[in-house]
Write a structure and sequence with these properties.
9-stranded mixed β-sheet; 8-stranded mixed β-sheet; globular; 12 helices; alpha+beta; single chain; about 400 residues
Amino acid sequence: MGLDADRDVVVVGAGIAGLALALALAQQGVQVTVIEAGQEPSVPPADVTLGLAQWDPRVSALTPTSTAWLDRLGVWDLIESKRAGPYRTMAVWDASGTGQITFTADDLDVPFLGHIVENRVTIAALLTAISRRSNITLHWNEGIETADFSGAEGVVITTTAGRQLAASLLVGADGARSRTRELAALKTRGWSYGQHAIVTTVRLAAHHQETCFQAFLDTGPLALLPLAEPTLCSIVWSLDDGHWEDLKALNDADFVAALNKALGSDAPTVEAVAARSTFPLRQCHATDYIREGLALVGDAAHSIHPLAGQGINLGLKDVAVLAEEVGVAWQDGMPVGQEFLLRRYQRRRKTDNLLMMSAMEGFKRGFGSSHPALRVARNIGLNWVDGTLPLKNWLAREALG
């Protein structure tokens, strides 16, 4: 294949962050190409009364800040018309003690604390909006093979299908194991948590009451996330290596019994479970998000522990800021891949991301320890914060995004 017509921006990765960035840029007039190594996803069924196996176990806890931004993109109505599970309460407790804390939307005078949405529903909504734009081109089943940053006119990439694309700016939105980041020789700092997360969909014996439940266990946090159907929840159960293997191998009845034992009496009873999948948990942070002609967003720039569900919200904040910076430059007729412009994006996002990553690391280490003194301290701390309304409401507002 020869060199395709020049584009302003090439985005690698058609996940939520990559598609949202492409749409946000295109709405400002920027010419965008998206390449994705995976297949084009099928359209999710619209019926909310689906069997367990028909729900996507990969979900996101979208904050009000994220949903407001998606609304400005014109996709939130498309998401809500499919399936979005609002939650108005968050209940958090230490399963090895008496510490607990509860946040409610009423306390903050807001309608919701957030929404639990299947990733495929969000992606389908973004693709619907993108299909209405003439200045976005998508190539499925094509990853990035090479990237040449040496040219005076921008970046030239070659895809795994042999296609060549030239752009002023290349954006890596291709996840925690970003090939784009690797080709740009951007260094990372990271480590394994020594844990895997089990994700699946479960059916409850009663209504979930639009509540997110999170138990901190000695072997890792367990979250029960309410879906749009009132008796269905998604679970994310993070488990230390040496524990998750046996649990994943259990038959459905034994897994449900183990899950209910772990949740205890502070959460609804689980009656049935769908097929389970697992993924390893790592923290990874790029030392730099940018270089001349390149920017990273989402998990390609930073990946964190899923215990608070903030990964996608950080990614969408990245996208919003990068789209703003690139859009202003493009409107002014400036090359959008200039390093000084991209450094503004990095400055605006790096501190916020590092603060959230540090907070999640603190939670992980604090609640992952079985040391008796620390266990007592964290239970006292949870109960104290729960009884200190101004502090509790401040924490809750921070979680709203």
